[in-house]
Design goal:
The complex is a heterodimer of chains A (465) and B (159).
Chain A (H helix, E strand, L loop, with lengths): L1 H7 L4 H12 L3 E2 H8 L3 H13 L3 E4 L5 E4 L2 H28 L19 E6 L1 H14 L3 E7 L2 H6 L2 H12 L3 E6 L17 E4 L7 E4 L3 E7 L12 E6 L1 H17 L1 E2 H4 L1 H4 L16 H8 L14 H9 L3 H6 L4 H6 L4 H19 L6 H14 L3 E6 L5 E6 L12 H17 L5 E7 L8 E7 L10
Parallel strand pairs in A: 5-6, 6-7
Antiparallel strand pairs in A: 1-3, 2-3, 2-4, 4-10, 5-8, 7-11, 8-9, 9-10, 12-13, 13-15, 14-15
Helix pairs in contact in A: 3-4, 6-8, 16-18, 17-18
Chain B lengths: L17 E4 L4 E3 L7 E6 L6 H12 L1 H6 L2 E8 L2 H11 L6 E4 L3 H5 L4 E2 L3 E2 L1 E6 L5 E7 L3 H16 L3
Parallel strand pairs in B: 3-4, 4-5
Antiparallel strand pairs in B: 1-2, 1-5, 3-8, 6-7, 8-9
Helix pairs in contact in B: 1-5
The chains are: A alpha+beta (465), B alpha+beta (159).
């Protein structure tokens, strides 16, 4: 009876028998299964491979590999869900073509089982991958993480069953975190998520996948180029392994810390500006050493520091003269403490440059971008910029407020120059054909330094633009 | 930049020319004798910088007009290419002329930069038909127009 249903679902006899055998005898070797099926090991492997791609069979990471299957009831449920989704997609495609009306599509489900040994399977097609996400959401006890990249939110919303399972998990208290790479075209889809789901934006993480508790990881191996396609070529590796999941979580936690809150990041598209927190490096080296040196204390504390109650109380009542001088509010005092104002101003300038490049991102042509950036910089009264093409294209920097010898003067020139640095690096950093080089000028030059924009394989005709 | 050949004609008579204008008529530069004028040469039809240069002259046209100064734009290539370029820019309050074989550009000493493409150069010509000011530019069209405006104010003495 069950066998007939499975055959009806489109499986061949050998695949059906494999499910029947593995469903009641988990962790079998392929050779053992082949013997039970009375067939060759290659044929058994072929059947197992297809069942793995469908998400019905999993394999342990042992040697030799041990195969397990959903039980027959779960397998049929799983296939029904899959077929429903495929039918839904067919209907949707048909309706789009014939009436230009978007249809809905359903999905399927199955059950997962407890994990003792590491197991893995390769899932093919987006349908199967998001079916697995649905299972993960249903099975999640504490935490579910979704790495959605640029278009994953679109795929999630196109799989209503998976989306509902994720939102339901959030509703029952599972902590759900999403790391995405925001794209203006997909922002509206995030409204489909339950309010308790926290979304952050990261430029650093492009990979897609899911992590459930500390048990299971799905890692995308391949994704179809067309983001609005069906995902027939999508492939993912699903791994049920506590150590693997935990190491994945450690990595994700680090990225999560540096990722930007959704509402802040979305301002890039709603307000056309970057509002991300700016984290500054204020200096390097031992700050303890800096302050002890500034206070005139030569010795660093160590485990043998003697404890003398009288000296201890007396010391608490004294005012260190060097400390008093530090309150005079001079920039050089900050330098003594290891705080590099110039470095900080340059970082602020870099951020301003990044924002300028962002606001000019719609300009396709690099020369036009440079024109706009240089015009803005001069218009802001920061100095004068000149370009030259001899011997190669470069921008000469002339600052209105060049570096001074006065250690207490605020080094605003660092910020002014940092703006150029930030704008150029932000515009060109992702182009492997372009290298930006900051070069000190010759003594007889009017400019202090210049930025050379090296372009490999450049077409000199571009300069005629 | 090693491009200063154009400045050698400062103080000399501006070469006259007759070229086809974007409206199809023939433009004779001698019709502007006795007036201040800016003749700007751009290097390539349909390049973003050249387009921006034309548009910046358009944006500042009233300032030029109030200085009693006419504007003439000259580009390389055929009349058809000039028309294509003009169609991407829209209306201009000054003519664009087609210097098909670059003879006029050569007469104004406009060099081929790196031996490959002509510099973008602008000339301020006085009522006496003498070249008063030259500015060579490759990029930064707005700055170029600002320089020309400043030069007109300076060399014309506000007249």
């Amino acid at each position: 009876m069950w066998e007939e249903l499975l055959v009806e679902s489109g499986l061949n006899n050998r695949e059906v028998q494999s499910i029947m055998i593995l469903g009641s005898n988990p962790k079998m070797k392929a050779s053992e299964l082949a013997k039970e099926l009375n067939t060759t090991r290659l044929d058994a492997y072929n059947s197992l491979s297809r069942l793995q791609e469908m998400g019905i069979v999993t394999v342990t990471a042992d040697r030799p590999m041990l195969f397990s299957s959903l039980d027959v009831h779960q397998a049929i449920e799983h296939i029904i869900g899959m077929r429903k989704q495929q039918l839904g997609q067919l209907v949707e495609g048909y309706e789009e073509l014939s009436k230009n009306v978007t249809a809905k599509k359903p999905e399927k489900s199955s059950r997962s089982k407890s994990v003792d040994d590491p197991r893995f399977a390769v899932l093919k097609e987006r349908t199967h991958i998001y079916s697995r996400l649905k299972m993960m959401a249903e099975d999640a006890d504490e935490r579910l993480i979704l790495l959605l990249g640029q278009y994953g939110i679109l795929h999630l919303c196109r799989n209503p069953d998976a989306l509902e399972a994720v939102n339901t998990a959030a509703l029952r208290g599972v902590v759900i975190q999403i790391i995405t790479h925001l794209d203006s075209r997909t922002i509206r889809f995030f409204k489909e998520l339950h309010d308790s789901i926290e979304v952050r934006h990261s430029n650093e993480l492009e990979s897609l996948g899911f992590v459930r508790d500390n048990n299971e990881v799905v890692q995308y191996l391949n994704i179809e180029d067309n983001p609005v396609g069906r995902g027939k070529d999508d492939a993912a590796l699903t791994i049920e392994s506590v150590p693997f999941a935990e190491s994945h979580l450690n990595l994700i936690d680090t990225i999560w810390e540096n990722a930007v809150n959704f509402n802040t990041a979305v301002a890039r598209y709603t307000d056309n500006q970057i509002n991300d927190p700016l984290k500054l490096t204020i200096g390097e080296g031992s700050f303890l050493k800096n302050i002890t040196s500034a206070l005139g204390i030569d010795e660093l504390p160590d485990e043998d520091t003697p404890f003398d109650p009288e000296a201890f109380f007396a010391a608490g009542n004294e005012v260190n003269e060097a400390r008093r001088k530090l309150t005079e509010g001079k920039l050089s005092n900050l330098k003594v403490l290891g705080i590099d104002i110039g470095l900080m101003l340059r970082q602020i300038g870099n951020r301003v440059g990044q924002e300028i490049a962002f606001s000019l991102r719609g300009i396709e042509h690099d020369i036009e971008f440079l024109d706009e950036m240089m015009d803005w910089w001069e218009y802001a009264g920061l100095g004068s910029l000149e370009y030259d093409v001899d011997p190669s294209f470069h921008v000469r920097v002339g600052l209105h407020h060049p570096p001074l010898d006065d250690v207490d003067a605020l080094p605003m020139w660092e910020m002014d120059d940092g703006i150029i640095e930030g704008a150029l690096s932000n515009r060109f950093a992702k182009d492997s054909n372009i290298v930006i080089q900051r070069v000190a000028a010759d003594e007889d030059s009017e400019s202090l330094w210049h930025y050379i924009i090296h372009r490999h394989n450049s077409d000199t005709l571009e300069l005629s633009d | 930049m090693a491009i200063h050949m154009t400045s050698s004609i400062i103080g000399q008579n501006a070469p006259d020319f007759i070229l086809q204008s974007d409206d199809g008529t023939m433009f004779d530069s001698s019709s502007l004798h006795g007036e201040w004028r800016v003749i700007f040469f751009y290097s390539r039809n349909n390049s973003p910088t050249c387009k921006r240069g034309c548009l910046t002259f358009k944006e500042q046209y009233e300032l030029f007009k109030s200085s009693g100064c006419s504007i003439i734009g000259i580009g390389p290539g055929t009349y058809e290419k000039l028309k294509d370029f003009k169609s991407t820019i829209g209306d201009l309050p000054f003519p664009l002329l087609a210097d098909v074989d670059r003879k006029v550009g050569v007469s104004y000493n406009i060099p081929m930069h790196l031996g490959q493409f002509p510099t973008k150069s602008s000339f301020v010509v006085g009522p006496d038909n003498k070249v008063k000011y030259v500015y060579d530019w490759l990029f930064r069209p707005r700055r170029h127009v600002a320089k020309i405006l400043a030069a007109i104010s300076s060399v014309s003495g506000g007249n």
